[in-house]
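Blackboard transcription, Thursday session:
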Amino acid sequence: MNVVDVAEPKLARAVPKLEARGLYKQFYRGSSRMDALYDVNLVIQPGEFVAVLGASGCGKTTLLRIIDGLEQATGGELLIDGNASRGTGVDRGFVFQQDNLLPWRNVLRNVMFGLELQRRPRAETKAQAMQYIDMVGLSGFEKHYPHELSGGMRQRVNLARAFTISPDVLLMDEPFAALDAQTREVMQTELLRIWRQAAGGRTVVFVTHQIDEAIFLADRIVVMTARPGRIKEVIDVPFPRPRDLHIKRTAEFGEIYDSIWKTIEQEVRVSMGMSTS
Amino acid sequence: MERATAPTAPDAADRGARADFGDQADRAAGAGPASRPRSPALVRFYRRYATVLHTICTLILGAVIWQVVAWHSSKLVLVPLGDILHAFTASIRSGQLGTDAAASLQGFAEGFVLAAAAGIAVGVLMAVNRVIFDFLDPWMSALYSTPLIALAPLFIITFGIGMTSRIAVVLTMAFFPIALNTTAGIRMTDANLIETAHSYGANKFQIFRKVLLPSAVPFIVTGLRLAVGRGLMGVVVAEFFGSTTGLGHTVFTASQNFATADVWLGVFVLAVIGVVFIRIMHIIEKKIAPWRNSRQGGIL
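(Written on the board underneath:)
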């Protein structure tokens, strides 16, 4: 993809929400160099739900961190609304794999954290926070401290905290990976519901290593290669929304799963240091 | 684009799937399902007040051992508790104890507050600035492990006899554990929390104020607790050499006059002051750091 494509009038949506142009990322440890990302090109439209799927260590988290501004790309460009990104911003919310709640704050004050940093009026901040606490189904738990909550509940608080700052883009780094299988399924459904309810049709970039999670959640799935991470394939998911867990039992879901697995199996083997034959 | 539409029927179905609420309530109720037979009243009373009962028992046991040992040892070293109680009432009546305790407490409290302010400030500076840390750390470590109390006579030469030298010795003794613990607490802040704050757009001051400082509170309180003991030691030693009032001065003169009961009285009062201050620290910690309630009772 080059610059000319973006300017083409046939693209109905004028400016993509996010655009990665030839992103490179290298890490140095002592004298050794490690390539994390290699020429990543990606265009994400406003309101899209994109899953980034890849074997562990393929650089998918690094890509997400570059989008958030927590990490600088070694080369290439990251455009947000057509402008080059500079560091972190309140237009993007990051949901980490660990819930990373502040242990000395109760649920309400954790959810208020983001808006508080923006020095919004306290009443407004509180009202927003209460709204999203309700949306994630934690009404009545406002005064509870994180250590009094289960893992699934803490991750809901984490989601509420991210949604409360009303970011244009939500960046999620395997947010459900630490949860047990059943809680995870519930949380996936919940995420789609909250995403639908939250005003403004937010763009979501969701990093995961779980194929079924990616298919269930996303409009498009970006499959990455083993390190150094490159985009291997982009798959459109045909299921209409709203979706529920039943689509996971359909034959179509199984077919998509199989085709993605074939694509990714080879990469998993590479990342494990196994032969690809 | 359906995602822009208002929430519709499937939301209700989604809500039904919220399964993980129950476990919290279950855990809270886990102590006594209705089906389990109730324990006898005495056992329940014991379970409820175990710590208080244990404390009372150990105090009584300590008093008994004290008396037994006191009967068999020189009255110059240990006196029966009755004698100490007698000394206590006499000292209260003469007003001596009140004057002494007030003088010692004032010196201790003023020195302690100064040490807390200076210790937290220096500890913070060392934690947030690498150059300051590198310059100060060798001195801090060396001075913390040196028995600075040996320098007390020099303080008295410098500040004269009276309150100032007392405060100076307490400050010197109490400063180091507070500063070192503050630095350690801030440096041990979970890096993930700092990064989360960054990603939410926090500036440096906000990261300090809303992440580093609260995270360090339990460490700072631990430093303050250690400082109580060292500060009390400081006030007593300062009064040994450089004072005409105070508990330390009375203990010192009493020991020279072989008034052993008065020596022990002074020591007991100092112990009570120490325990009270440490309790105050506990209460402060529970107030400002409720998430860090240390485990009640035994671990195993």
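Lecturer's comment: The mean pLDDT of chain B is 84.
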